[in-house]
């Protein structure tokens, strides 16, 4: 993934996950969560910028993603990722960090908080997977036939992943960005892992917590790309209406991959949110 490498590791029941930190040790803690089929690379511009303000910023690759371990039979479900995240927070010794979570990472953060007693100071949700129904026709097709897609010739698989990932951006990804996002899925191990995570993407893991959103008692902001074709902007309006005190912040001219489509605009929203009294 270009020059993006996570230096630390943590062993979990779902395999070893890679993580790293930026900024001042002991500074205000902020944790960034990525979505699928991405990695912590989506934060490669935002993490250092957040850390420059005297914060200690943590990033990690979910189990089975990015630089983290991938293996046959691995549990990479949203249920497992929520448990891993709660354990990772304990490993870091963080109590009440601010959390910024994109896509599947939004569900992971919500599950860790609502089901596993992870405590946050603030929660920023960026185009999260949080409300039924979710999953595009393509996503469901792959999930129902993952055993077939796993056997695609490597070149065809890589072309499919590049095309799929590219549709998450409204502005269009630079070649180096697209290469970095596709690289973890490009070899034989990554190909199997790519279809594994789609096969395990079960809506029941958001259904289990959707009814609990009105019980959230912490500052929440919802940022959403106005041109998101993966999860429409209307879902952001619906989600913000379910969470007491939540505000919806539109990110103009951005698709689903807001951290890469509009990093400056998203950073501005996050900084403003973190700085609120």
From TrEMBL:
Q: Which InterPro entries match?
A: AB_hydrolase_1, AB_hydrolase_fold, AB_hydrolase_sf, Epox_hydrolase-like
Annotated GO biological process = acylglycerol catabolic process
User: Can you supply one Gene Ontology CC term for this chain's record?
Assistant: membrane
Claim: Cytoplasm is one of the keywords in the record: no
Identify the stretch annotated as signal peptide in this record.
none
Q: Which UniProt keywords apply?
A: Hydrolase
Q: Which residue ranges does the record assign to the AB hydrolase-1 domain?
A: 29-263
A single GO molecular function term of this UniProt record: monoacylglycerol lipase activity
Q: Per its record, how is this protein called by name?
A: Alpha/beta hydrolase
To which species is this protein native? Streptomyces phyllanthi
């Amino acid at each position: 993934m270009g020059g993006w490498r996570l230096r630390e590791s943590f062993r979990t029941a779902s395999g070893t996950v890679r993580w790293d930190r930026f900024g001042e040790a002991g500074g205000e803690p902020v944790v960034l969560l990525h979505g699928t089929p991405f990695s912590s690379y989506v934060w490669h511009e935002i993490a250092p910028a957040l850390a420059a303000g005297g914060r200690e910023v943590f990033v990690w690759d979910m189990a089975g993603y990015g630089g983290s371990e991938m293996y046959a039979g691995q549990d990479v479900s949203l249920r497992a990722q929520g448990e891993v995240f709660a354990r990772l927070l304990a490993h870091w010794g963080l109590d009440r960090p601010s959390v910024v979570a994109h896509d599947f990472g939004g569900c992971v953060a919500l599950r860790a908080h609502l089901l596993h007693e992870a405590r946050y100071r603030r929660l920023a949700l960026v185009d999260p997977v949080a409300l039924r129904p979710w999953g595009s026709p393509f996503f469901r097709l792959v999930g129902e036939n993952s055993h077939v897609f796993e056997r695609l010739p490597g070149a065809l698989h890589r072309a499919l992943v590049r095309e799929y990932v590219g549709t998450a951006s409204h502005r269009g990804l630079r070649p180096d960005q697209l290469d970095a996002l596709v690289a973890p899925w490009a070899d034989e191990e990554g190909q199997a892992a790519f279809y594994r995570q789609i096969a395990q993407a079960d809506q029941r893991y958001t259904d289990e917590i959707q009814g609990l959103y009105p019980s959230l008692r912490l500052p929440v902001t919802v940022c959403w790309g106005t041109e998101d074709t993966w999860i429409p902007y209307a879902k952001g309006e619906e989600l913000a209406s379910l969470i007491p005190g939540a505000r919806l912040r539109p990110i103009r001219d951005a698709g689903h991959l807001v951290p890469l489509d509009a990093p400056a605009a998203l950073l501005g929203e996050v900084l403003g949110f973190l700085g609120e009294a």
